[in-house]
Amino acid sequence: MVEVPINKEYRLKKIQNYIARMPSLSTTVTKVLEICNSSRTSPNDLNQVISLDPVLTGQVLRLINSAYYSLLSQATSLTRAIIMLGINTVKNLALSRAILNTLNGKNSCGSFSMDEFWTHSICVGVTARFLATIKRIPLVEGGEYFVAGLLHDLGKIPLLNRFPEEYLQALELSKVEQIPLHQAEDEILGINHSLVGGMIAERWQLSQIIYDALSHHHNISQTRKKNHQIVTIVALANVYTNISQIGSSGEFYSDDSILNYLLDQVGVDRDALLELHESLLKEIEKAKFFLQINRKR
Amino acid sequence: MKIKFWGVRGSIPCPGLHTVKYGGNTACVELRFKDLDRIIIIDAGSGIRELGNYMLAHDLSKGPIKTEIFLTHTHWDHIMGFPFFSPIYIPGIKLKIYGPVNYEDETLEDILGGQLTYRYFPVRQAELVSEIKYIELKEDSFDFGNGIRLTTKYLNHPVLSLGYRFEHCGKIFCTVYDTEPFHNVFCTDIKNPSYDESIALEGEQVAKEENRRVEDFFADADLVIHDTQYTQKEYESSKMGWGHSSFEHAISAALRAKVKRLALFHHDPLRTDSQIDELSEKYCRKKYPNNLEVFFAREGMQIDL
Ligand SMILES: [Zn+2]
Ligand SMILES: [Zn+2]
Predict the structure, then answer these.
(1) How far is CA B88 from CA B84, B107, B201, in A?
(2) 3-state secondary structure of B69
(3) With contact defined as beta carbons under 8 Å apart, do A104 and A22 qualify?
(4) Which of B136, B140, B186 sits opposite A44 (nearest CB)?
(5) Which of residues 3-62 of A touch B (CB under 8 A)?
(6) N or C: which end of chain A has fewer CB within 10 A?
(7) Which of B73, B101, B139, B205 to mutate to test the interface with A (most CBs of A within 10 A)?
(8) Predicted ipTM?
């Protein structure tokens, strides 16, 4: 029998302190992720949204200069970089920089690999965006689906960093007993990553949509009605990603009935999802660039 | 320096009755230096096939061939001849391949060698017996050995595209393709909600500066090979943003940059010999300031600098 969590309050306090010191994913970074991920970004939008955050601007310029320039010539402004290299190149670099900013270090912990974690996260983001397209959701909103999917498991980071031993126990428990990871987290820690995800979203003042995706992707019935569709799509993308075993967020539990339930809720059939698989894999390959994994250069 | 054109077309090879005079192969230019045994090739369009055969017939007997290929960019018309470049199948031949690649793309090796997979071609990259080294280039300037100075410059094309400037013994040779003039891509319509005055103004300024920098890059060249796929009228009516220049733009830029000879290049596949002859009457017969000489590049044409 597993020990009953006794220090829930104490643990929550520790998590709160941790979140307070997490380099915040500013609203501008979320905006950058959103804008960069919509397929119709205008040069003006891109320039303006990056410029809102001077630190990010500096980082993007540094990345542009190291990727494309020698010391002899340097791109000195975003405007110049966009005119010289084209909007897509700058967009991709900004996106990669913004995602790296959310990485908060890349160290792995025991069996939990951060590279695998972000591969999982990106796959959920990309799948959610694909599903949005199938559901004929306007392209402009596609970026939001991507961000919601990308960040849905963010709550695992503080748990893993503050309580690494317990977290590894939870991973083990979910694997051995074949129960969902969030349930194992509850049993070992008395706190699960959905709860922590919600705390982060509040602290960072992310949108309600993102808040709901972080807190309710394992329990879609608790979602505000207006965000029901996006959270359901993220939940489906998550289950699908786990079944396809692209990356890993430590979830070893999979259950066909959940998949079928979510397919039904979203209103797509399994074949439509399978048809996407090839293009999905391609997107993931590209996204590995964002993580700077497997780079030959 | 000796320059020879092996392919002068843009977009796609277009052999046939109407392209006999100027040639139908896509971009490939050979550059050699007096008294040096280096062979430099710019672009591996379909024209490189004949060049490869020529090299095997004339250079192989003089010892192992060392070749350096410079790709201006990786659009298909500039790399499609690579699998048919016979030296890559000869053991002992050493090849260096240079080119620009977008950071988020595959490597140069994957992009070029990716043509050598069974789905496209009966031989795979891994089966090649020649020694091939791939080197990715940025905008830069460096000593290229044997007293050759090489400078590269980003041009304006939908994919990263480099211009090359070779300087040797006081002579200057530049390639400026595929490219079109830089434009202010930012919104200049005051009524548009995303209009931003400072961005709009900076955009104008930057486009002007970058066009100046391209001209500085080929300033004083003895020979410039410039993208001129379109007439100014064609360009303005429907080809803006396609990444190619007009005759008018290339000629006026060459005049400002005090170029001595200007080769018009990357001919549109639709352009017939008689049309090019007509255009030649219009653009090449004129007397230009500083004795600028303007001509249409032709397959097989050779120029000594
Ligand atoms: Zn071309
Ligand atoms: Zn091109």
Answers:
(1) 9, 19, 50
(2) strand
(3) yes
(4) B186
(5) 42-45, 47-48
(6) N
(7) B139
(8) 0.85
Q: What is the pLDDT of residues A43-57, one digit of tens each?
A: 998 898 888 777 778
Q: How many CB pairs under 8 A join A and B?
A: 80
Please count the helices (runs of H) and the strands (runs of E) in chain A: 16, 0
State whether residue A69 sits within 8 Å of chain B by CB. yes
The pLDDT tens digits of the residues spanning A245-279 come to 888 888 888 778 889 999 999 999 888 888 888 88
Cα(A203)–Cα(B283) distance, integer angstroms: 67
- Going from N- to C-terminal start, the domains of chain B cover 2-302
Name the B residues in 144-183 with CB < 8 Å from any A CB.
154, 156, 158, 160, 182-183
Q: Which chain A residues are closer than 8 Å to B158 by Cβ?
A: 86
Nearest-by-CA chain A residue for B104? A289
Do the Cβ atoms of A83 and B183 come within 8 Å?
A: yes
CA of A288, closest CA in chain B: separation in Å? 9
Say whether B140 and A70 touch across the interface (CB within 8 A): yes
Residue in B with minimal Cα distance to A86: B158
- Cβ atoms of B8 and B22 within 8 Å: the answer is yes
Domain B2-302 belongs in CATH node 3.40.720.10? no
Which among B133, B206, B266 is positioned nearest to A84, based on CA atoms? B206
Chain B contacts of A77, Cβ < 8 Å? 202, 206
d(CA B286, CA B227): 20
Which pair of tokens denotes residue B78? Answer: 């500039």
Kindly state whether A87 is in contact with chain B, defined as any CB-CB distance less than 8 angstroms. yes
The span from the first CA to the last CA of chain B, in angstroms, equals 5
Return the half-sphere exposure (C-beta side, CA atoms, 13 A cut-off) of residue B243.
20
pTM across the whole model? 0.76
What is the number of the ligand closest to the CA of B45? 1
> What is the pLDDT at residue A66?
82
What residue ranges define each of the domains in chain A, with the CATH number in brackets?
8-22+108-291 (1.10.3210.10), 24-103 (no CATH)
User: For B271, what's the count of Cα atoms within 13 Å in the CB-facing half-sphere?
Assistant: 28
d(C-alpha A248, C-alpha A153), whole Å: 11
AA letter at A240? Y
The 10s digit of each residue's pLDDT in A70-118 is 877 788 899 999 999 888 788 877 877 776 666 555 456 677 787 788 8
* Chain B interface mutation, best of A79, A92, A282, highest count of B Cβ atoms under 10 Å: A79
- Residue A230: which H helix or E strand, with range? helix A228-244
Query: Counting Cβ atoms within 10 Å, is residue A144 exposed (0-12), middle (13-18) or buried (19+)?
Result: buried
The arithmetic mean of pLDDT across residues B286-298, rounded, is 96
How do residues B26-67 score in pLDDT, each as one tens digit?
999 999 998 898 999 999 999 999 999 999 999 988 888 889
Nearest alpha-carbon partner for A78 in B243, B185, B138: B185
Q: Residue A228's closest CA among A240, A216, A244, A245?
A: A216
Q: In this complex, which of B107, B160, B206 lies closest to A83 when CB atoms are compared?
A: B206
In this complex, is the C-beta atom of A282 within 8 Å of any C-beta atom belonging to chain B? no
